[in-house]
Design a protein that fits this description.
The complex is a heterotrimer. By secondary structure, chain A is mostly helical. Chain A is built from 13 helices and 2 strands. In chain A, strands 1-2 form a two-stranded antiparallel ribbon. The longest helix of chain C has 30 residues. Classes of the chains: A mainly alpha, B alpha/beta, C mainly alpha.
Amino acid sequence: MAELMDIIASFLASSLRQAAPLSLAALGVAYAEKAGILNIGEEGIMLSGAFFGFIAAYFSGSLFVGIISGALGGILISMIHAFMCIKVKANQTIVGLALNFFTLGLTSFLFLLVFGQNTKLPSVASLNPITLPVLSKIPVLGPVFFSQNILIYILYLAIIVFFVVFYKTEWGVRLTAVGENPRAADSAGLGVNATRYVSCIINGVFGGLGGAYITLAQLGYFQEDIVSGKGYIALVVVILGRHNPVFILLSAMLIGFAESLQFSLQTMGIPLPSQAFSMLPYLIAVIVLLLSAGKSSSPAFLGIPYERDKR
Amino acid sequence: MQKVILEMNHIDKSFFGKKANDDVYLRVMEGEIHALLGENGAGKTTLMNILYGLYQADSGEIIWKGEPLAIKSPKDAIDRKIGMVHQHFTLVNKLSASENITLGLKTKGYPFTDRASLDSKISEISTRYGLPVDPGKRILEMSVGEQQRVEIMKLLYRDVDLLILDEPTAVLTPSETDDFFAVLERLREDGKAIIIITHRIPEVMRIANEVTVLRDGKVVCSKSIGDLDEEKLSQYMIGRDLSTLKREERTGGNVLLNIDGVSLEEKGKKVLDNLCIKINEGEILGIAGVDGNGQKQLAEVILGIRKLGGGSIYLDGNRIDQLSIEERKNMGIGYISDDRHRDGLVMDMNLEENMLLRSERSGFLHHGFIDKSALKSATEHAISEFSIKTHSSGIPVRLLSGGNQQKLIIAREIHDSVRLVIAFQPTRGLDIGASEFVRSLLLSERDKGCAVLLISADLEEIFSISDEVAVIHSGRIMGIVRNNSDVDMTRIGLMMAGKEVM
Amino acid sequence: MKRKEASLAASLIVLFLTILLSLVFIGVAGDSLSSSISGFFKGAFGSAYSISEVFVKAIPLTLCGLSVAAGFYSGFTNIGAEGQFYMGAVAATVLGMYCPFLPGFLLIILGIVLSFLFGGIWAAIPGVLKAKFGISEVINTLMFNYIATGIVGILLQTVLKAPDAYFPVSSYMPEGMWLFKIIPGTRLHAGLILAVLSAIFMYVFVWRTWAGFKIRAVGSNRRAASCAGINVSLSLVLSSLLSGGFAGLAGFSEIAGLQHRLLEGMSPGYGYLAIVASLLGGNNPFGIILASIIIAVIQVGSQGMQRSSGVPTAISNIILGLVVLLILLRPVLVKALSKGDNNG
């Protein structure tokens, strides 16, 4: 019995660790989507966060500086995205894809420029777990949830803050108005584009943190295309979590669970191709999209630029 | 003595060289309901959009509470306590009534809104004026009438002194209209000024103190309601007695279109209610009625864009209501939509490609390949026959004027093998010359033995070419009259207002 | 400025900015700007072999670019060409491995048909989901890429794995299925002919046939198309099928023309680059050929640049991302340049 509990606890813990970068990124995406900004470029935002987070931590020797730089790296890309979507009113899907290309090139370009071609990857010590007093003593769940690194605590805090902002404040109401009916929001005197720019900054911060999580908390090193599709999965997590911060964490954990299952089966030497599990999250995503047909939680004006003088 | 609250003088506004407002004036007192009366396109809404800051006037002045006023945006207007409810509501569906009403306001405790106290203030206003609104209910769960009350509450919550209401009764049932007028009276007693944009004369007589009539962008009359009657107002609004085009009285042939007890529900509301009409070959049936009473749904169920809720439709004795749009069009239905940009044309395609969007296209296709030269010559033929003004048949139709776009649609939809033409607001947005052209074309189709269903909010148009006129209200046909010299227009008007006068 | 002039000027500005920004990156990274640039051109045009390498890359890019465009015409945003490519490659591999007894010409013809169908159906699933349930194809086609690469991985470790191989690769295709080399001694194969024929087919289909016309009408104005009696769902699904089909052909062409067996990571992101190709080529089949060649030049050239002066090949992704962003910026430039002259 105790053994089973241990297995469950270790699965939960590893699911949470896999889920953390997805959840961080997805929170930002949810915020931007609520305001009507569709961000296929999340992959690029995360990659930029992963890169700048790593490089700053490497040269400063401070993981704190790394985390801040990760967030800034995310903002860098999300602001280009915001400008292209809001000001230029370009097709948001294509802007996002182009930014993913750009960031993919830029990060590995800069990485090679800084470190050159080395056989040994430069690395940093990854974030240490911080054990919270009292809370970590809760049986089973305590060590799982309250003996984690700082980014996971930031995630908890963010979930609470986002929840309150979305559902308990006037900001959430305004955000909904901007995404659902920008014309109504405009005629009520709300700045539609300003709201959207702010949402993009928030998207950048959390996408950047999600990326930094990968390099600073999970791996301790950077290499080309290290985000490898997590940005796209974050978009799915948002749909699966119906833009609700709590559900987003749960959805991300579901996908994290599939990933950790894959690792443990591999280490156990079960002769199943690893791809059978690595494609699970994507299969789940497609099934979720199918099941949510017709009852999407996406705002009515998602991905559509606002033009005041156009009916 | 009441005080003048608003004056608008010498307002001019042109769109693409066409004058929408020409030296217009308007004077509104405190505690007055002022009707702005006119036909579609007379310039009423343009004038009010100028007042509300959505458009800027080319010239003219606005004096508000004795001071000249420059309004750049709706926000300025609201700040000066001028509010407007548009025909198309600006409400956020997923939010509650209360959240919509206070949207954009920084209330006490912002951003942690004290929703309960806002709700109680809303309830207080709503009881004061008899406007029942459930603050917690979401807009998407509301009927149109409720939504309109939320829109008005938005203005009252901001304590506006002038309410502009654009065709407010267009979406209301008769009993909702009664309640709504009671609210307006209470607002008037409270000293608010109200401008109500409308083209319904009986409503003006019933609720307004003053009326300003616009015709073709000019003010033709501005008087107290006591000095007027319905007949005079009608003359001012239309400008002349309803004229008729030369139309030979004739009896049609066999029944071609038979709509038998058709019903349709949308969002839990009956939009077509056991509707029955018949059209004979060689006849034009006009459907008269206020916009939004089921006309669009009627046109679209015949073509097949919407599926029926009940009843059946026969074309020449064959049941068609289960057929696809393509099959119906192949049976000889031509369709002229009221929204040519959305329904009629592919704006980015050229004239030739738009001509190809027809049911009668066998001459242009060989084994699935498009015969470009045949298509080009047919398009050029249509261009000259209908005198469509264009540089070539190869330019995108978005570069054509509205009238020329409409002519292209008509050239496409009315071809030799057409037997039924559905003409839905066929002259909307066209100038007089183009309108006359379209009407005479419909008449000539009728003379060739076609059946024509003419749906229009323009009574003059209906009575100028129809053989029979049916009046629609709330998805029901209120009555059908033969269009001859002794049509009782009062009766038509009453039917349009939903009164049973059989 | 007149609108036409403004439009031309804007294009020139986009081109100029792309080159300028690229040079900045190259200048930062390379030993010297001149050796980098000469390395670039030598890499892309220096020899018959390097030129042939450009075309070797342009073949799958063109086919995938046609794929993206075929979807675009009906408003089907296909980000899934990568996955459709792999499904086409799987179809060709299965055929080659299980029917090696068939004569070569039959293998090629069947391979073309099956790859087209496999790729097409892989895209038509999101197409049906969009047409029937209104589910956005953007995320779906993307997810289908990952699922497709997962399927390839599973197959290569199980049924398609070459018996003697240590790595997850398939056996070689029977030689009868190999496409001939256009220039002996290089890798340039007859897939080029397939790509050009596909572009011609696509041009004729989309611009000259009723079915293609319907697809364009649906993409431009779904509602008007439906009022005109066009079956919108059918056109959408047909367009997605066609779209996936071209990407599937790219998979066939890589198997039969270049690799001769199925490998993991066979495509260095052709399906994604294709979106750039289609945008750059203005969704015109022949424009896409040209755009694919340009992209291939950038990629092959940047390899030369890395050899000559150590500029990381990642530069090509930077340039492509920049090109797309600047192209998207173009309308704003045109508007700004033609200000004060609104007669256009």
